[in-house]
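To the structural biology subgroup,

Please find below the input and predicted structure for Multidrug ABC transporter permease, which we are adding to the shared reference set this quarter. The sequence is reproduced verbatim from the submission form. If anyone notices a discrepancy with their own records, reply to this email rather than editing the shared folder directly, so we keep one authoritative version.
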Amino acid sequence: MRRSISAELLKLRHSRIGLVLAVLPAISLLIGCANYYVNQGVLQNGWYSLWTQVSLFYGEFFLPILIAICCSYICRLEHQNRNWNMVLSSPVRVASVYFAKLIVVSILILLAQALFMGLYWLAGTLFSLPGPFPLETIGWTLRGWYASISICALQLGLSLRIRSFATPIGISLCAVFIGLGMYVVKAGVFFPFSLLTIGMSVLSQDKLSSVQNILFWLMNMAFIILFATMSIRRLKNKDIVTS
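Predicted structure (tokenized):
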């Protein structure tokens, strides 16, 4: 597993994925800050009001797209020049290949989350928002990262199966709107994209009850296990189209 992870990190060594990780959170935060600035007369809750604006654009749209881009990118090399043939015939377990990719993408998303939090703190400081920095937002960011792993598991399975770079990203964008609908009808816990909304407290900053919190963590774990199992089983039992 360690060698597989090292190999995945080596593939990213001279890539521009770091630029994408920096640009998308920055753009989403700029849009949210602009919206906050225009509506300061209505948004009177300081740091929390700023969070509602920046997390809305980031957590609902930019983060799922960023996850899809990372998953498509980390599978791009295998889809080129019949490289899947070499990967699947090498003395490395299929599960190690999958989980190495999942771990690397999860690390990339964690870095994006850390950058987003730093930019959020900087924006609040520049706006001279009253009161101390809300530590709850750090918990929301980490919870959102955990929810993003289930989306990573799903998107990685799609990217392993689909050779097109853009198609899994388009599927992710469609799933975002499905997730919004599931959240509105109070069924968000049954869909990974809705769990991201819940995890980052994008649309509601109310504290989760004990039951809701346990269900959130359990459902995310269930989705991760489900998507990982499906993807690994497919890699073991079906040929990859590499032509």
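Summary notes: Residues 94-126 form the longest helix (33 residues). The chain has a mean pLDDT of 88.

Regards,
Lab coordination
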